[in-house]
Design brief:
Number of strands: 6
Largest sheet: 6 strands, antiparallel
Shape: elongated
Helix content: 40-55%
Order of helices and strands: EEEHHEEEHH
Number of helices: 4
Strand content: 15-25%
């Protein structure tokens, strides 16, 4: 069992999170981490790819993989890379929240400030755009194939009409 102390990290309003005095890990209830990042990290209007790359070269996660139990329900939490690309492996309980080991909050804040979150959303939009373009190209090809087959059908109908007009009805191929 993990014993946590509640601490107030809010500047202008109360913002309570839990902290382990033994390992200095932090537990955020669902959506608290996002709220903290919104309040504590200034908006990034650019993506510093060079510094992001440098930051990701020095990950905090250790070589030993350890699954942590949720401090609320004691179920094993899932290990996830924060937003899929931050390089910070968080422990997530879908029902209760996110555990960050010592130093991981600072790395997430730096990654966010350098435009990491913005870069993730840009990549997602680029992927959606590529998917939409591929779908549109496929539709255009299918439309072209359908158009060609309709043209062939009309071609044969025109020939049939022409033969019928020359030789009369009842001529079958």
């Amino acid at each position: 069992m993990i014993y946590l102390d509640s601490i107030d990290i809010g500047k202008n309003t109360r913002f309570i999170i839990e902290k382990c005095e033994r390992c200095y890990g932090l537990f955020f209830d669902n959506h608290e981490l996002e709220r903290l990042l919104e309040e504590s990290v200034s908006k990034s209007y650019f993506i510093d790819h060079h510094k992001l790359h440098s930051l990701l070269q020095h990950p905090l996660h250790k070589d030993i993989i350890q699954y942590r139990k949720c401090p609320e329900c004691s179920k094993l939490m899932q290990r996830k890379n924060h937003l899929g690309k931050s390089g910070v492996i968080t422990d997530v309980c879908k029902e209760h929240g996110i555990w960050l080991d010592a130093g991981e909050l600072k790395q997430i804040q730096e990654w966010t400030a350098l435009g990491g979150k913005r870069n993730v959303f840009k990549d997602e939009l680029d992927e959606k755009h590529r998917h939409t373009r591929a779908k549109n190209r496929k539709r255009a090809r299918m439309s072209s194939v359908n158009h060609k087959s309709k043209n062939r059908k009309h071609y044969f109908e025109d020939i049939s009409d022409m033969v019928s007009s020359l030789f009369g009805e009842g001529v079958y191929w």
